[in-house]
Design goal:
The protein is mainly α. Helix content is 72%, strand content 2%. This is Phosphatase PAP2 family protein.
C-alpha cells in the first residue's frame, strides 16, 4: 500500500516534467563500469527480459514449482503492464521525449527478485519477519542495482528508478495472492 502511494505521489509530482530533477542523469561513465551497466541494462531490454522470464519460468516448472512459474509470467506481466500504462499518464520525459516514469527496467528487475526471493523463503520455510527480511532485501538489492544502471546510463532520473521499484512492490504481492487463490497448492 505504501509503495502504491509513493508511485501515486511521485506521478503527481513529476507529471509532464522533463527536467528539474535534483540529481540530473550522470554523463561520462567510464570503463569498466560502463560495460557492466550495459550488461545489466540488457537484462531489462525486451530480448534480455524474455530470456530471463523464459529461463526462470522453465526452471520453476522443471523444479515442480508450478505456481512460481505462473507467478513469474503473471507478476512480470502485471508489473510491466503497470509501468507501460503509467508512463503516458504521468508524461514525464527525459532526453526530449522519452517517457521515463516509472522505470520499467527497475520495476522488472525488482519483480523478478521479489518472485525468486518469495520462492526461496517458501522453500526454506522462512515465515514472518525472516521471510519478509529476505524478500525485501533481495528486492532492494535488485532494484538498487538496476536503478543505478539506468541512472548511470542517463536513461532515467533517480526518482524514476524509485517509482519502478515501488511499482513492483505494489504489483507483485496482489498478483501473488491471485495466483495462490486461482492455483491452490495440491494437498
Amino acid at each position: 500500500m505504501v509503495a502504491a502511494l509513493v508511485v501515486l505521489a511521485q506521478g503527481l509530482l513529476y507529471a509532464g516534467e522533463s527536467s528539474g530533477e535534483f540529481v540530473a542523469p550522470w554523463d561520462g561513465l567510464e570503463q569498466p563500469l560502463y560495460g557492466i551497466a550495459l550488461v545489466i541494462d540488457f537484462l531489462g531490454e525486451p530480448l534480455g527480459a524474455v530470456l530471463l522470464v523464459a529461463a526462470l519460468t522453465g526452471g520453476c516448472w522443471l523444479a515442480g514449482r508450478r505456481r512460481s512459474a505462473v507467478l513469474v509470467l503473471a507478476g512480470t506481466g502485471v508489473t510491466v503492464g503497470a509501468t507501460a500504462l503509467l508512463k503516458p499518464i504521468v508524461g514525464r520525459t527525459i532526453h526530449g521525449g522519452y517517457l521515463s516514469f516509472p522505470s520499467g527496467h527497475t520495476a522488472f528487475a525488482t519483480t523478478l527478485a521479489l518472485i525468486v526471493a518469495m520462492a526461496a523463503a517458501d522453500r526454506l520455510r522462512l515465515g514472518g519477519a525472516a521471510g519478509t527480511v529476505l524478500v525485501l532485501s533481495v528486492a532492494l538489492l535488485a532494484g538498487a542495482v538496476m536503478g543505478w544502471t539506468e541512472v548511470a546510463l542517463s536513461a532515467h532520473y533517480p526518482t524514476d528508478a524509485l517509482g519502478g521499484f515501488c511499482t513492483a512492490l505494489a504489483a507483485v504481492p496482489p498478483t501473488s495472492w491471485a495466483v495462490d487463490r486461482f492455483f491452490p497448492a495440491r494437498r
